[in-house]
Amino acid sequence: MPQFEISHVRPQGRRLDWPDLLFGTFLIAVSAGAFAATAKLSGGSAADMGPGYMPRAIALILLGFGLFFTGRGLMRSHAGIERVQARPMLGIAVAVGTFALLIEGAGLVAASFAAVLLAAAASRESRLFEVILFGLCVAAGAVLLFVKALALPVPIWPW
Protein backbone atom coordinates (compact mmCIF):
# COMPACT_ATOMS: atom_id res chain seq x y z
CA MET A 1 0.00 0.00 0.00
CA PRO A 2 1.52 3.39 -1.03
CA GLN A 3 2.31 5.89 1.65
CA PHE A 4 1.38 9.54 1.15
CA GLU A 5 3.30 12.43 2.57
CA ILE A 6 1.56 15.67 3.41
CA SER A 7 3.85 18.37 2.08
CA HIS A 8 2.33 21.33 3.89
CA VAL A 9 3.01 19.93 7.36
CA ARG A 10 6.27 21.25 8.72
CA PRO A 11 8.71 18.49 9.73
CA GLN A 12 10.04 18.47 13.27
CA GLY A 13 13.01 20.74 13.82
CA ARG A 14 12.41 22.84 10.72
CA ARG A 15 12.91 26.55 11.31
CA LEU A 16 10.53 29.33 10.39
CA ASP A 17 11.19 31.90 7.71
CA TRP A 18 11.61 34.79 10.14
CA PRO A 19 12.10 37.57 7.57
CA ASP A 20 8.82 36.71 5.82
CA LEU A 21 7.02 36.16 9.11
CA LEU A 22 8.16 39.49 10.55
CA PHE A 23 7.50 41.38 7.30
CA GLY A 24 3.99 39.93 7.13
CA THR A 25 3.35 40.87 10.75
CA PHE A 26 4.62 44.40 10.03
CA LEU A 27 2.24 44.76 7.06
CA ILE A 28 -0.67 43.53 9.16
CA ALA A 29 0.19 46.08 11.87
CA VAL A 30 0.43 48.93 9.32
CA SER A 31 -2.91 47.84 7.88
CA ALA A 32 -4.50 47.78 11.32
CA GLY A 33 -3.12 51.25 12.03
CA ALA A 34 -4.57 52.56 8.77
CA PHE A 35 -7.97 51.06 9.55
CA ALA A 36 -7.87 52.60 13.04
CA ALA A 37 -6.80 56.02 11.70
CA THR A 38 -9.60 56.09 9.12
CA ALA A 39 -12.33 54.73 11.37
CA LYS A 40 -14.12 58.09 11.66
CA LEU A 41 -13.90 58.92 7.94
CA SER A 42 -16.80 58.05 5.69
CA GLY A 43 -15.95 55.37 3.17
CA GLY A 44 -18.64 55.86 0.60
CA SER A 45 -18.85 53.52 -2.37
CA ALA A 46 -16.89 52.97 -5.56
CA ALA A 47 -19.23 55.34 -7.42
CA ASP A 48 -19.18 58.00 -4.67
CA MET A 49 -15.87 57.74 -2.78
CA GLY A 50 -15.52 59.35 0.60
CA PRO A 51 -12.27 60.47 2.23
CA GLY A 52 -11.76 57.07 3.86
CA TYR A 53 -12.31 54.95 0.75
CA MET A 54 -8.78 54.90 -0.74
CA PRO A 55 -6.88 54.61 2.57
CA ARG A 56 -9.04 51.63 3.51
CA ALA A 57 -8.66 50.07 0.07
CA ILE A 58 -4.88 50.35 0.31
CA ALA A 59 -4.98 49.04 3.89
CA LEU A 60 -7.00 46.05 2.68
CA ILE A 61 -4.40 45.31 0.01
CA LEU A 62 -1.64 45.61 2.65
CA LEU A 63 -3.58 43.24 4.89
CA GLY A 64 -3.76 40.69 2.06
CA PHE A 65 -0.02 40.90 1.46
CA GLY A 66 0.62 40.70 5.20
CA LEU A 67 -1.45 37.54 5.52
CA PHE A 68 0.33 36.04 2.51
CA PHE A 69 3.83 36.73 3.87
CA THR A 70 2.89 35.62 7.39
CA GLY A 71 1.48 32.35 6.05
CA ARG A 72 4.53 31.81 3.87
CA GLY A 73 6.79 32.50 6.83
CA LEU A 74 5.02 29.85 8.88
CA MET A 75 5.00 27.23 6.12
CA ARG A 76 8.60 27.23 4.87
CA SER A 77 12.08 27.57 6.24
CA HIS A 78 14.34 30.52 5.57
CA ALA A 79 16.22 30.11 2.28
CA GLY A 80 18.86 32.71 3.06
CA ILE A 81 19.62 36.07 1.55
CA GLU A 82 22.30 36.58 -1.07
CA ARG A 83 25.24 38.75 -0.09
CA VAL A 84 24.84 42.42 -1.04
CA GLN A 85 26.97 43.48 -4.00
CA ALA A 86 28.36 47.04 -3.92
CA ARG A 87 28.82 47.52 -7.68
CA PRO A 88 25.10 47.42 -8.66
CA MET A 89 24.07 49.63 -5.74
CA LEU A 90 26.74 52.23 -6.46
CA GLY A 91 26.08 52.12 -10.20
CA ILE A 92 22.38 52.80 -9.83
CA ALA A 93 22.96 55.51 -7.22
CA VAL A 94 25.49 57.24 -9.47
CA ALA A 95 23.12 56.95 -12.45
CA VAL A 96 20.24 58.55 -10.54
CA GLY A 97 22.48 61.30 -9.15
CA THR A 98 23.91 62.04 -12.59
CA PHE A 99 20.42 62.28 -14.07
CA ALA A 100 19.40 64.73 -11.34
CA LEU A 101 22.49 66.87 -11.91
CA LEU A 102 22.25 66.87 -15.73
CA ILE A 103 18.51 67.28 -16.33
CA GLU A 104 18.41 71.07 -16.14
CA GLY A 105 21.80 71.94 -17.57
CA ALA A 106 22.30 69.29 -20.27
CA GLY A 107 18.67 68.50 -21.08
CA LEU A 108 16.47 65.42 -20.95
CA VAL A 109 18.14 63.57 -23.82
CA ALA A 110 21.68 63.79 -22.42
CA ALA A 111 20.57 63.13 -18.84
CA SER A 112 18.54 60.05 -19.82
CA PHE A 113 21.29 58.68 -22.04
CA ALA A 114 23.98 59.22 -19.38
CA ALA A 115 21.84 57.59 -16.70
CA VAL A 116 21.33 54.49 -18.86
CA LEU A 117 25.08 54.24 -19.60
CA LEU A 118 25.99 54.53 -15.93
CA ALA A 119 23.29 52.11 -14.81
CA ALA A 120 24.53 49.58 -17.37
CA ALA A 121 28.00 49.81 -15.83
CA ALA A 122 26.48 48.32 -12.68
CA SER A 123 26.21 44.95 -14.44
CA ARG A 124 29.04 42.85 -15.82
CA GLU A 125 26.66 41.42 -18.44
CA SER A 126 26.03 44.70 -20.29
CA ARG A 127 27.06 44.89 -23.95
CA LEU A 128 28.06 48.29 -25.32
CA PHE A 129 25.99 48.15 -28.52
CA GLU A 130 22.84 47.09 -26.66
CA VAL A 131 23.37 49.73 -23.97
CA ILE A 132 23.79 52.51 -26.55
CA LEU A 133 20.71 51.36 -28.47
CA PHE A 134 18.68 51.10 -25.26
CA GLY A 135 19.92 54.51 -24.09
CA LEU A 136 18.80 56.12 -27.34
CA CYS A 137 15.38 54.45 -27.06
CA VAL A 138 14.97 55.55 -23.43
CA ALA A 139 15.97 59.12 -24.28
CA ALA A 140 13.51 59.24 -27.19
CA GLY A 141 10.77 57.68 -25.06
CA ALA A 142 11.41 60.17 -22.25
CA VAL A 143 11.06 63.10 -24.67
CA LEU A 144 7.87 61.65 -26.18
CA LEU A 145 6.32 60.94 -22.78
CA PHE A 146 7.35 63.88 -20.63
CA VAL A 147 7.69 66.70 -23.15
CA LYS A 148 5.25 65.78 -25.93
CA ALA A 149 2.50 63.74 -24.20
CA LEU A 150 2.51 65.29 -20.71
CA ALA A 151 3.71 68.75 -21.85
CA LEU A 152 6.10 69.13 -18.91
CA PRO A 153 8.46 72.12 -19.11
CA VAL A 154 11.64 70.03 -19.27
CA PRO A 155 14.50 71.19 -21.50
CA ILE A 156 15.23 68.60 -24.19
CA TRP A 157 18.65 69.93 -25.22
CA PRO A 158 21.22 72.12 -23.43
CA TRP A 159 20.72 74.97 -25.92
Highlighted features:
single chain; 159 residues; mainly alpha; 2 domains; 5 helices; 0% strand; flat; Tripartite tricarboxylate transporter TctB family protein; DUF1468; transmembrane
What does this structure look like?
The structure is a single chain. The chain is an all-alpha fold and 159 residues long. It folds into two domains: 18-75; 86-149, no CATH class. Helix content is 62%, strand content 0%. It has five helices and no strands. It has helices at residues 18-37, 53-75, 86-105, 108-120, 128-149. Helix 1 packs antiparallel against helix 2, helix 3 runs antiparallel to helix 4 (108-120) and helix 4 runs antiparallel to helix 5. It is flat. It starts with 17 loop residues before the first helix and ends in a 10-residue tail after the last helix.
**Average predicted confidence as pLDDT:** 88
Element-by-element helix/strand order: HHHHH
Number of strands: 0
Content of β-strand: under 5%
Give the count of helical stretches: 5
* Helix content range: 55-70%
Q: What Rg is obtained from the alpha carbons, in whole angstroms?
A: 24 Å
Distance between the termini: 82 Å
Uncertain stretches: none
Domain DUF1468: 22-155
Pfam family, one: TctB
Protein name: Tripartite tricarboxylate transporter TctB family protein
Keywords: Membrane, Transmembrane, Transmembrane helix
